[in-house]
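Subject: complex prediction, re-run

Hi both,

The earlier run crashed halfway through, so I resubmitted it with identical inputs.
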Amino acid sequence: MGGQAAVMKQVVIVGAGFAGLNAAKRLRDERALAITIIDRENHHLFQPLLYQVAMAGLSPADIAVPIRSVFAGDANVRVVKAEVQSVDTDSRKVRTDSGDFTYDYLLLACGAQHTYFGNEHWEPYAPGLKTLSQATEIRYRVLEAFEAAEKESDPEKRRRLLTFVVVGGGPTGVELAGAIGEMSRYTLARDFRQIDPRQTRVILVEAGPRILPSFDERLAARAMRDLESLGVQTWTGARVTDVTPEGVTIGNERIAAATVLWAAGVRASDVGRSLKDATLDEAGRVIVDEYLNIPGRPEVFVAGDMSRALDENGRPLPGVALVAMQQGIYVAQTIKADLRGKPRRPFRYHDLGQMATIGRSRAISEFGRLRLTGLIAWWFWLLVHIYRLSGFRNRLSVLIQWAWSYWTFGRGARLIVGKHWRSYNV
Amino acid sequence: MGGQAAVMKQVVIVGAGFAGLNAAKRLRDERALAITIIDRENHHLFQPLLYQVAMAGLSPADIAVPIRSVFAGDANVRVVKAEVQSVDTDSRKVRTDSGDFTYDYLLLACGAQHTYFGNEHWEPYAPGLKTLSQATEIRYRVLEAFEAAEKESDPEKRRRLLTFVVVGGGPTGVELAGAIGEMSRYTLARDFRQIDPRQTRVILVEAGPRILPSFDERLAARAMRDLESLGVQTWTGARVTDVTPEGVTIGNERIAAATVLWAAGVRASDVGRSLKDATLDEAGRVIVDEYLNIPGRPEVFVAGDMSRALDENGRPLPGVALVAMQQGIYVAQTIKADLRGKPRRPFRYHDLGQMATIGRSRAISEFGRLRLTGLIAWWFWLLVHIYRLSGFRNRLSVLIQWAWSYWTFGRGARLIVGKHWRSYNV
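This time it finished cleanly. Structure:
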């Protein structure tokens, strides 16, 4: 054998989200590695801003970057657009719809999708928000509801068209509800002649006792008041029992609503099920040790929303972008340590806080003991998100569109594209 | 009757393209008019840049503006998203899928669509480029062809995937072919590992003796050389005899091509057929007099691509944006003259020239006797198009994206969005 460096080690990364992308970026300069990134989409998505695409504030291209272009200059990085079917940890193979890929190291970071808790048939009537195509679908539904209401003469039908229900009081639900409230009160206020969009009903439904349970209680209360000022009613302790094309049932109460959006609960990617050495938790997440490995497989890492790792206090880490990013970087560091014969160190999450926005110029932020609300929190949120966007062009474009929206209350991407074509988006 | 001003006259404008939008903009300050704009889309489209959306250089929101937002401040302008079914000139009614609209003045400006000259079954295999959804469909097909080629091991199949045929040698065909050539030679050159996108075959097929027949012969020859330098082969005198999922047949020669785009010939909107007083030409265009009226109906105007008007020399005016814009403005002036009891003047087209781009930094422009080629023509094209874009935000955003693409050869909107959703776009 001609020395270690001559034998290229195969690193396969499944999923180019925050975990996968950050791992690959930190491994690409290792000459001893051949890296294969497998994703079913051709783009990395900046998911924290996906609700802005759904709410017509940004275009898909503003928050997504082609994976290939990120690694265009790295000859040792290959990008494959394929769907993973299973992983065989004995033969070290990833099986996809476009062939098998053998690995020396594997990072599984396939993320999560929405779950309807056994009522998956609700999905067509209450789409979730995880992909660009879902975001454009939601945008279509929201804008089309206002158009249909403008043409409707029956007051009851019109009321149903102008009722929007968002299920789930986490950050995504709060951001969606706040954006619909703001859109109807400001952006669309003068656009219609038959209806007054300010009469729009937006209901945020949360099964638990309060919204934003991961935040400090006072911040969550402030967010609720901010939502109220945008016309959003918050119903806590309210469990959805049925969703139909006509609307949603909460307990025994039926709400006629043309648009229902789902932001309530996630389930990890199904790829984890094929790992015969691994245990899954109740949300389908792969339980990993402090090295993000599954039992007996130090060459297999699972990170991001599809894994369940614990913090120092034994609590599961939240499914947020910051955890995924840090885990991706950690996996790269661990593989590099192996290559250099150094010992591995356990993963440690550095909690940098959390944020949520409520419409234009309101937000709540929590950084350790520091808590911000209102305009300052919003500016902070804006800066952090623009800074984090991957790619200079996106940052600048998003900044300009936000500045423009901010001053004009306009939403430039307020487009409905017809059904004339079978339809691919973006 | 309480004086003329007290009786609101109903102006119905069908189609918010260049003709309809410009007419409405110039009529909105007339207190004596109630204006209804009917369009099946919710946006006005800057069609001269549509090929940039198809080629992933721009996002849909960059070249489209919601019609409602243009007229948000005008209480006398109503926007209806509806599909027109027919026009009854006797009862002065426009029938739509959302009810009837009565007019005192009618402007029909519904544009045109592609025609396959009796072979409409070719459309699924050779989409045209008239709407945003067609543009995103074409973008999907082109990007997906490269992805599929990267995964294909059979050299013949791979060659088919990397063969692109553009049918029609007018400005749109030239711009599409040039953009594919440029994308493969620059933008995507380093993105793939198994294929070399520079091996891409791009064939521009034109049935006539030369491309760009409306341009000066020397300019067209220069455009052809520019296309060649981007790897585009131009086949003139070549008539398409069949299009199938496998490719295209030209005369007796079959070309295996995964992607065929149609830019060859247009047919006016079907709305004209319902005008019983009017005569249509062979392309379905409504023949109008020098006041853009149909016979005996001074209250009915037909403008833009769906009308056939003549210039001073008796030649039909071309179906370009500038004609439509000037006609829209003319119709507004005519209605205003009527309101003030002034005589009507015939329409006169002011020819401001024509332009076409060939990839990055090459173009041809013709302004009377002034003819420009190369980089100067391209800068001129850029300035004119940015200036003409409706809405400040779009202009700025497009400018930045172009500047970015120009320096980096990147195409920011290079996104493929999956089929997971039924799919509406943008």
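The first strand of chain A starts at residue 9 and ends at 14.

- K.
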